[in-house]
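agent: user wants the full assembly modeled, not chains individually. Plan: 1) parse entity lines 2) check alphabet per entity 3) run joint structure prediction 4) return tokens. Steps 1-2 passed, two entities, 228 residues total. Proceeding.
--- entities ---
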Amino acid sequence: GAVVSQHPSRVICKSGTSVKIECRSLDFQATTMFWYRQFPKQSLMLMATSNEGSKATYEQGVEKDKFLINHASLTLSTLTVTSAHPEDSSFYICSAENLGTRNSPLHFGNGTRLTVT
Amino acid sequence: QQQVKQSPQSLIVQKGGISIINCAYENTAFDYFPWYQQFPGKGPALLIAIRPDVSEKKEGRFTISFNKSAKQFSLHIMDSQPGDSATYFCAARWGAQKLVFGQGTRLTINP
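--- prediction returned ---
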């Protein structure tokens, strides 16, 4: 079945450094990927929609200069948290859509736990 | 109008019982209603989904009931097992637009 791989699963970084999270669709092409943030015991909050070959669309209140998204190929999107601060600590999850399948569902990665010290 | 309201926030069910989680929406343009299951530290996994042209869909022990006129849909887990203990999210979407999630229900199945 369709699989979305997210890497790393966990990362700890110091304040002020940048962290890159990768999201790959392993067996299908994804023209669109979505990036979510999830706080403990809360729902998923959409941060941005990543479109292959074009600029990402950010949700209201999400700082595009802090959360840099690149979708350079049909199988890879990256989220870079720049100049990370402790309040950026969260669970980041990506999802991808297999547009080659009619009525395709969204598949989610296993998330990245970011801890900023 | 973009919201999907989910209830209850938490639910405890005895093993073998039926777990029922409800969701309501406002946007009549929504045409896809999935349910996701999420275990701690993992991403959500698609459990079952329905489109508004049917009123019910069943896959194994999981059933979605859909009431288009009331703009409500629910997940029923029959013969609930301890392994079903997880957080469940309903969601809604129209076309290729973004998925709108409910608030989540933390389900605990007592052995």
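agent: reporting back. The longest strand of chain A covers residues 44-51. Chain A touches chain B at residues 4, 6, 32, 34, 41-44, 46, 49, 93, 95, 97, 103, 105-111, 113 (CB under 8 Å).
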